[in-house]
Amino acid sequence: MARVTILNEDRTLTSAEEITAGLAGHGIDYERWVPSHPVADNAPAEEILTAYAREIEDLKTRGGYVTADVIDVSPTTPGLDEMLAKFNREHWHDEDEVRFIIAGHGLFHIHSNTGAVLAIEVEAGDLIRVPRGTLHWFNLCADRRIRAIRLFQDTAGWTPHYTESRVDENFLPVCFSAAHFSMTT
Ligand SMILES: [Fe+2]
Questions:
Q1: pTM of the model
Q2: Ion ligand 1 — residues with CB under 5 Å?
Q3: Backbone angles phi, psi at 139, to 5 degrees
Q4: CA 18 – ligand 1 centroid, Å
């Protein structure tokens, strides 16, 4: 289950119902997905996509997504820090950012057009959809691991546009997950 904190209200949402409703108010979709059959989190990508085929097809229909793949990031991923540095500053995309988490953790910050800043820590079973144009940034947690299904309307649109606001510098990327009670760098 994700953990959502509305930082300027110092309010934490923990139940699925609270999270779904709370995020919907800021334009963010949240769902919990259960695979059609048990699948290991280190299974080949094709097996992962098959296990969640129904949910993927449903989301493709609703969101106009045309492709799905599986991204795998671990502490041994070459160039990991350079990759992370592209996404840990406030940015937006011309494409929705859709992630279903298979393994590991991640921390999205959303800078809502209401002015609120939300921290959304995701883990296995969480689906998050950040609509195109939404200001956000992303960090890994202490495990520096995330495996996720991604859906795209057009992969060419999934390029970060930076605001250069530096608002991200006001929020420490604190994760609460996985028995680590620690901060990422
Ligand atoms: Fe992004």
A1: 0.93
A2: 97
A3: -130, 155
A4: 24
